[in-house]
Amino acid sequence: MSDSGIWRTVVVAAALILLAGLPGQAAAAPAHSGVVDSEHVGPHWERVQVDSAAMGRTVGLDVLHGSGSGPRPTLYLLDGVDAEGVSDWLTKGHAADFFADKPVDVVLPAGATGSMYTDWDHPDAALGWNRWETFLTGELPGIIEPYLHSDGQRAVAGVSMGAQGAMMLAHRHPGFYRAVAGLSGCYSTIDGPGSAVTALTVASRGGNVVRMWGPPGTLEWISHDSTVGAEALRGTVIYLSAASGIPGGPDLAEVMRASDLIAAMQSAGGGVVLEAGARICTEHFAKRLSDLGIPATVHYEPTGIHAWEDFSSQLGPAWDTLATAFGQ
Fold this sequence. Notes:
Layout: H1 3-20, E1 34-42, E2 45-52, E3 57-64, E4 74-78, H2 88-91, H3 95-98, E5 105-109, H4 132-148, E6 154-159, H5 161-172, E7 179-183, H6 192-203, H7 210-213, H8 219-223, E8 237-242, H9 249-257, H10 261-292, E9 297-300, H11 308-311, H12 315-324
Parallel strand pairs: 4-5, 4-6, 6-7, 7-8, 8-9
Antiparallel strand pairs: 1-2, 2-3, 3-5
Helix pairs in contact: 9-10
């Protein structure tokens, strides 16, 4: 599609989105939802089980309790494509150490593998029943924020699939989050690269993307495109980052530490391609925000691949921007 064709689609889609009445606040929470179990993992780390009517099951999540006396704001931190069990932000991204002295409660959902953190139209044979948007905006805040005695302020952030998911949630629910951060993500669902990345993300974990929003290019795909819906982000504090795809020191050191050097090199090669793609996606989205006059903090690393050694290094700069939304 030509540039003019893309932006004609953008204009039409924006009108359709407005007509669709996308919510600017949390959707009404279905009944029978709440905390059903919890256990302490560490001094400030708690594992919580939440009963979700939307998902039809109990959803596990981890909570990092912030420093100082409450009430505190809440940061919802979304994982990448392998969002199963315990968030990789905790097992690989050093989030527990990073947030130990920060005055914010961090909520890390688990079990969203390959789901795009969205509401699916149909159950999927591999990925099951996913209603993540309803859960994250309509159910979870009303459950976990009173549990944490939150001050009512919230932000959402994510990496890779979680970056796209976080931005979708923010643009589809204007004003619900004070701030949003996307690390190494892709933010379009209708242009060629964005549509391909979305479909490949779902397929990489065995899912059928048509069962998510129907065939690519239809209204559901358009309404989830953050480039199309960027105007709804006006007034939200925004942070974006991506690396170049060129391996840096931490990446090379990780390869050399691996017991299977060939497998590690193959994995690093995949990370090069993915991060180079994320860089292009981020530049495209940042330009869209700039064209609309919507402020955003955008950071490009000269080296780094699509790997946790590089993602974790961006958590500090991302938090520095998010914190401004809370007056910190």
